[in-house]
Amino acid sequence: MTDDQQLSLFNSESDSTPNPQQKDRIPTDANIPIPPQTYASLEELIPHCQSCERCGLSESRTHAVIGRGNPHADIMIIGEGPGRQEDEQGLPFVGRSGQLLEKILASVKLDTQNDIYIANVVKCRPPDNRTPLAPEVKACKPYLLEQIRLIDPKIILFTGATALKTLTGEKKAISKVRGQWLEWNQLLCMAIFHPAYLLRNPSREKGSPKWLMWQDIQAVRDKLDELRSV
Ligand code: SF4
Predict the structure, then answer these.
(1) Which atom of ligand 1 is nearest to the CA of 49?
(2) Which CATH superfamily is domain 7-229 in?
(3) Could you tell me the distance, in angstroms and rounded to a whole number, from the CA of residue 75 to the centre of ligand 1?
(4) C-alpha 160 to ligand 1 mean position (Å)
(5) CA 33, CA 46: separation in Å to the nearest integer?
């Protein structure tokens, strides 16, 4: 046996990858783990999310909302969960919030078709747009981790406290941590205001949420240019 073959015996990732029968049961059995490397592509992951019953949010969804944008994007934006329009259309960040997000990105020459992939912590809409419950987040988080692994972005932006807390464990309010670079799993990340919050706070005065967002998105653009130039 070669050294490589011997070393592979200690490879915990391949040990924990579900066998084909287990993999088929992922959407219907929350007890089947979804370890890293479960999916070879987003195309494999998508039908599992679309038929998923791993948490109670499946009962009231119209569509699972998995993601949109460039699957090879340098920036990934992660929100909390789908709202009513997202649930109806099966796409994240549509409606007024989505339109504002597109404008914010366009202000620094970023667009969702080329530079961005958008996803949520939970793929199915929580009733009445409530915050997803801990068991729902726990059930759905492995899909998101697989999306991040497959997309392999240079930068992650968290829109809202649920996304920030789910991935980094940071519990501070977005207003306290926005605009600050942090490292998570060797990825550069930043929390930014949710566009829905900006819609409720339309002032552009210096120091207002919209003004702060303008500072943050310029910092993101600068950092992306820096990373792309390396
Ligand atoms: S929210 Fe996630 S875990 Fe729950 S049913 Fe939808 S896809 Fe499955």
Answers:
(1) 7
(2) Uracil-DNA glycosylase-like domain (3.40.470.10)
(3) 24
(4) 19
(5) 17
